[in-house]
């Protein structure tokens, strides 16, 4: 590892998901190379295993400058294993941010790209009762600062669509159902309400 680090001479190391290698982290630490964990996750199984050697795990985790975790559960588990709370943030799952991966689906994405025509798109997916109100309020504020923005709102349970439509009308936000949009829409309104699955 020392020879590899000498040859590459990195200024920063990014580890992904759960790839935490104690000896490598120690080698980076000795050379002053900061290490970040991106798209971090800690499965329940890994968590149980790491708890068996918690003092070692805690020491290893001190060698990581920043933990960018996929979800709140992952963040809670890494904190329980001894990570510094000031170094843990939840960034979500970044695997969908890969441009190369997105290029594999141009035919699927082209109709969406044509519809939004460069407008900023905000997605609130898998929402539950009580969440849409604050989301719509936040979106109204977003539109004030970023005119032309579009909200794609996807309730977790499709049977709640009529209830969410009422909230959209009360918020005075023009919307269209995704099922209607599939048939073609002359002009995209502020909100696309996802009432389809898949």
Characterise the protein shown here.
- The protein has 198 residues and is an alpha/beta fold.
- It is 43% helix and 18% strand.
- It has ten helices and eight strands.
- It has helices spanning 2-8, 22-31, 44-52, 54-61, 72-80, 99-102, 106-116, 132-145, 161-170, 178-181, and strands at residues 13-16, 35-40, 66-69, 88-90, 121-127, 150-155, 175-177, 191-193.
- The strands form two sheets. Strands 1-2-3-4 form a four-stranded parallel sheet, with helices on one face. Strands 5-6-8-7 form a four-stranded parallel sheet.
- Helix 2 (22-31) links the parallel strand 1 (13-16) and strand 2 (35-40).
- The longest helix is centred in the last third of the chain and has 14 residues, at 132-145.
Strand percent estimate: 15-25%
- Classification by helices and strands: alpha/beta
Largest sheet: 4 strands, parallel
User: Helical residue percent?
Assistant: 40-55%
Strand order of the largest sheet: 1-2-3-4
The residue ranges in which pLDDT falls below 50 over 5 or more consecutive positions are none
Shape verdict: elongated
Q: Total number of helical segments?
A: 10
Measured between the Cα atoms of the first and last residue, the distance is: 45 Å
Number of strand segments = 8
User: What do the pLDDT scores average to?
Assistant: 84
SSE series: HEHEHHEHEHHEHEHEHE
Q: Rg to the nearest angstrom?
A: 22 Å
Which terms summarize this structure?
43% helix, 10 helices, single chain, four-stranded parallel β-sheet, 198 residues, alpha/beta
Topology summary:
Layout: H1 2-8, E1 13-16, H2 22-31, E2 35-40, H3 44-52, H4 54-61, E3 66-69, H5 72-80, E4 88-90, H6 99-102, H7 106-116, E5 121-127, H8 132-145, E6 150-155, H9 161-170, E7 175-177, H10 178-181, E8 191-193
Parallel strand pairs: 1-2, 2-3, 3-4, 5-6, 6-8, 7-8
